[in-house]
Amino acid sequence: MEKRGGGHWGERTKLVHAGRDPSEQFGFVNTPIYRGSTVLYPSYDALVSKDSRYTYATKGTPTTEALEKAWTDISGAAGTALAPSGLSAIALAMMSVVKAGDHVLVTDSVYRPTREFCAEHLTRFGIETTYYDPLIGAGIADLIRDNTSVVWTEAPGSQTMEMQDIPAIAEAAHARGAVVAMDNTWATPLFFPPHAMGVDLAIEAGTKYLSGGSDLLMGLVSASERCWKQLRRTYELYSSCPGPEDVFLCLRGIRTMKLRLHEHEKQALEMARWLEARPEVARVMHPALESDPGHTIWKRDFKGASGLFSIELKPASKQAVAAMLDGLELFGMGFSWGGFESLVTPFNCASYRTVTEFAPAGPCLRFHVGLEDLDDLKADLDAGFTRLRATI
Ligand SMILES: Cc1ncc(COP(=O)(O)O)c(C=O)c1O
C-alpha cells in the first residue's frame, strides 16, 4: 500500500486501510461479503479464454482478495493464501514446498498438530522429519542435508515459549537452499515482521488475533517472492477455501488488531510479573520477562509480546490443580486463544518432545490474558491459589 506521491504509510494506517477501496464498492467503507460459487462471463470468448477478473469463487472473490491483499501488505510479503483454519494453513504451507523423498527439519517446540501432520501425512510420501532443539540457532547448519527442503520454526515455542534465533536459522537454511517456514501466530507480523527476518512462508492462525473474538476459524500463509507462485498454485490445487463471513470478520478484526494486541501485551506482562512473585509458582515462561532465557533474542527481534504465556507451578497434586482451575470464575478452560476473554489450560509436553527434555518438577499451566479488568483476573487467580494450597 503506497502513498500517492510515493513512500509507505505507517503500520496503523495500513491496518485501517489495507485491502479495501470504498470507490469500488459504492462508497461503503467495508468490502462486502460476496457469497457465491459461479461467476458469469459476458460472452463465449470471455468464458473460453477465462478473461475475467474473477473466474470461480474458489480462485478468489472480492472478499477473499481483500483479506489476502491486506495481509500481504501488513506482512511485507509477495502474496498471501488463505485457509479455513490455522492447521490447514500449516498443511498448505508445507505441501507447497515438499516433494517425495525430501527431508524436513522441525523445531521440537512446534505446535503439536504440526508434529502429527509430519508423522502421519508427510511419511506417506517418504518425507522424513528430524526434530531439532529450538535453541539451536546457526547450529541448524549441521542438520541440513542435501534433500532438506524446509526448516520449520515457531517462536516462541508452543506451550513452553522457547525463543528461536530466526535470522540465524534463515541464514543457515538459505545457504543450503532450504525454505524457512515459521508459525508466527503468537507475534503476528505486527510484533515480528517475518519476511524481513528471512522467513519464506509465514503462518498465522487467524483464529486467534485476527478474529479476536473466539468466533471463527481462519488460516493465512504469507510468502516471500521465492515461494509465492508455488504457494498460490498449491492453494488452487487443494481449493481449500474459508467461508466469506469468516473472511469478512477477519478483515474487521485486522482494523483493531494492533490496539487489542497492545492491550493483551500490557495485561499479560503485568500478570506474568505478578505470577513470578507468587510463592506457588516455580517459573514463568514469557520471553518479554527479563528473567526468561529467550529475553535477549525477543528484545533484539520482536517489537512486542502477545497475551499468551505459561507457568510451572511448584509440585502439586492433580487434585490441587483441579481445585484451583475448577473454581475459577473468569478464566475459561479451553483450547485456542487470542480472543477477548482469559483462558487457562494445563499442559505437559513430556510425552511427545523428542530432542529436548521437558521434565518440570510441578504441573504447568498456559494462560491467555484477555481484556477483563486485571485486578479481577488477579483476584480470580488468587482465590484459585488459595484452593490449590488448601488441597495439596
Ligand atoms: C501456534 C498455533 N498455530 C496454529 C494453530 C492452529 O490454529 P487453528 O486452531 O485455527 O487450526 C494454533 C491453535 O491453537 C496455535 O496455537
TrEMBL record:
Which InterPro entries does the UniProt record give? Cys/Met-Metab_PyrdxlP-dep_enz, Cys_b_lyase_bac, PyrdxlP-dep_Trfase, PyrdxlP-dep_Trfase_major, PyrdxlP-dep_Trfase_small
Q: Which Pfam families match?
A: Cys_Met_Meta_PP (PF01053)
Q: Does the keyword Lyase apply?
A: yes
Q: Which UniProt keywords apply?
A: Lyase, Pyridoxal phosphate
Tell me a GO biological process for this protein: L-cysteine catabolic process to pyruvate
Source domain of life: Bacteria
Cofactor(s) needed by this chain: pyridoxal 5'-phosphate
Which reactions fall under this protein's catalytic activity?
A: L,L-cystathionine + H2O = L-homocysteine + pyruvate + NH4(+)
Instruction: List the signal peptide residues.
Output: none
N6-(pyridoxal phosphate)lysine: modified positions: K208
Q: Any idea which GO molecular function terms this record carries?
A: cysteine-S-conjugate beta-lyase activity; pyridoxal phosphate binding
Similarity comment: family membership: Belongs to the trans-sulfuration enzymes family.
Name of this chain's protein: Cystathionine beta-lyase
